[in-house]
Design goal:
about 450 residues, alpha/beta, 7-stranded mixed beta sheet, 6-stranded parallel beta sheet, binds uridine-5'-diphosphate-xylopyranose, binds adenosine-5'-diphosphate
């Protein structure tokens, strides 16, 4: 069997690499328009940083895993085609700022219709709004490709930074298909592939709509948990409660559960915001406005948390940060990834730049080029640092925006010595030992704990 996956990004690349490792009898080719990206997948400098991914790619590459730009050839020969292209939020026209831009998905559908000869099963893997499968089907039908294809929805639940584990041992695999004999057959074919490494009981089969909506709902619930604990964190700071303690207490209720209760400077990533916007758009489209407003609040709370954090930095530094050096630790949207999409670091840094701060940014995996692109600035507007010590040298404040493990092990005495006084630390991830920092002499502000200092 041959599989072709269109899109060699954060979803397509890792997903197909694990599938190739688990199903040695299937030949898998990941194709992309982006030649540089494909070249990187064929090298040892993968375009996606994920723990353990390089080893997995190296094991399968050249055996039953291939990366190519020859899209038409692969589409022509494939038995199953996965669509794993980007679906950013629309920036123009109807649904701007909310609906997903389906241009890339539509282009794929048209190309598949024109070129694919063997394939009968098309799997949508990209994060997409509800009813995309139907749109793809309509494109096939309207162009006379008839009923040749079965479209399945197989949303990906991997989280970046833990993609390999999430793919190897998923909580569940979801496959949605049409409620017809042909649809059910197609679902079984795809389920058969996953069954090579996922226990049958974890493979859920639903109709197309349920599969598509479940993905949006799952992400909305996760994001809502973060906004809920972040809302409590704001209250903790003014009342003297500690959000860590509150989270531990509520998390021990088995109905609530302890995961995903870390208050932070706000959630980022390519999915949460986009999926909630999609949900909101869907609600508005179908006229359930109260439901739309309910979910929108999760995003408003996230934005509030970011603004609150950057506002705290300005007010603590005596209401002005003009010309002040501020060391920014972390730019990725979470640890163990080089992905910056939707990162809270982008909003916080933009705000600090508006206040004319000098930002000295250090992230173990994010490039200067990416930071400039995200902040929409020219070269040389920020100071890009090789390590955390260099960033802190001569700074008024250190701010933690990503929870990279290496930040926990830093020599904060050394950092303190190299900074201007009073030296401030703003912990947007709650990863440092605040009592120790106060002993060293720092003025510490932490999300969900407020201010701690010797004075
Ligand atoms: C998410 C979903 O977890 C995944 O199932 C889906 O397929 C894609 O979207 P991802 O965005 O890669 O995955 O990472 P995730 O671990 O969910 O983190 C998202 C954001 O929330 C990050 O910015 C993270 O730092 C933040 N977060 C997470 C918190 O602020 N607190 C928490 O307790 C957990
Ligand atoms: P995700 O996080 O969903 O994987 P990415 O942006 O990381 O999103 O990856 C999507 C990939 O899809 C990009 O590398 C992009 O070049 C590729 N892509 C988009 N449209 C097409 C297309 N029509 N044919 C082939 N590749 C495409």
């Amino acid at each position: 069997m041959k599989i072709c996956c269109i899109g060699a990004g954060y979803v397509g690349g890792p997903t197909m690499s694990i599938m190739a490792n688990k199903c040695k009898d299937i030949q898998i080719t990941v194709v992309d328009l982006d030649e540089k990206k494909i070249a990187a997948w064929n090298s040892n400098e993968l375009p996606v940083f994920e723990p353990e991914l390089l080893e997995k790619v190296q094991k399968a590459r050249g055996r039953n895993l291939f990366f190519s730009t020859d899209i038409d050839k692969e589409l022509m020969e494939a038995d199953i085609i996965f669509i794993s292209v980007n679906t950013p939020t629309k920036t123009y026209g109807v649904g701007a700022g909310k609906a997903s831009d389906l241009t890339y998905v539509e282009n794929c559908a048209r190309r598949i219709g024109e070129v694919a000869r063997k394939a009968k099963i098309i799997v949508e893997k990209s994060t997409i709004p509800v009813r995309t499968a139907e749109s793809i089907r309509k494109i096939f039908l309207a162009n006379g490709y008839g009923d040749r294809f079965q479209v399945l929805s197989n949303p990906e639940f991997l989280a970046e930074g833990t993609a390999v584990k999430d793919l190897e041992e998923p909580d569940r695999v979801l496959i949605g298909g049409e409620e017809s004999e042909e649809g059910r057959k197609a679902v079984e074919v795809l389920a058969g592939i996953y069954e090579q490494w996922v226990p049958g009981g974890k493979i859920l089969k639903t109709n197309l709509w349920s599969a598509e909506l479940s993905k949006l709902a799952a992400n909305a619930f996760l994001a809502q948990r973060i906004s809920s604990i972040n809302a409590i964190s704001a209250l903790c700071e003014v009342t003297g409660a500690d959000v860590g303690e509150v989270a531990r207490v509520i998390g021990m209720d088995s109905r609530i559960g302890s995961k995903f209760l870390n208050a932070s400077v706000g959630f980022g990533g390519s999915c949460f915001q986009k999926d909630i916007l999609n949900l909101v758009y869907l609600c508005e489209y179908y006229g359930v406005y109260e439901v739309a407003k309910y979910w929108e609040q999760v995003l408003l709370m996230n934005e509030y948390q970011r603004e609150r954090f950057s506002g705290k930095i300005v007010s603590s530094l005596f209401d002005t940060i003009t010309g002040k050096r501020i060391a920014v630790y972390g730019f990725a949207f979470k640890k163990d990834t080089n992905d910056t999409r939707g990162s809270s670091a982008i909003s916080v840094c933009k705000h600090l730049l508006e206040e004319k701060a000098h930002l000295a940014i250090y992230d173990p995996k994010v490039s200067l080029q990416q930071i400039n692109k995200d902040l929409e600035i020219e070269e040389e507007k920020i100071i890009y640092c090789k390590n955390a010590y260099e960033a802190a040298d001569g700074a008024h404040a250190v701010i933690i925006l990503t929870e990279w493990d290496e930040f926990k092990g830093l020599d904060f005495k050394k950092i303190y010595k190299s900074m201007l006084k009073p030296a401030f630390i703003f912990d947007g991830r709650r990863i440092l030992n605040h009592e120790n920092l106060v002993k060293i002499g720092f003025e510490v502000y932490s999300i969900g704990r407020g201010k701690k200092s010797r004075y």
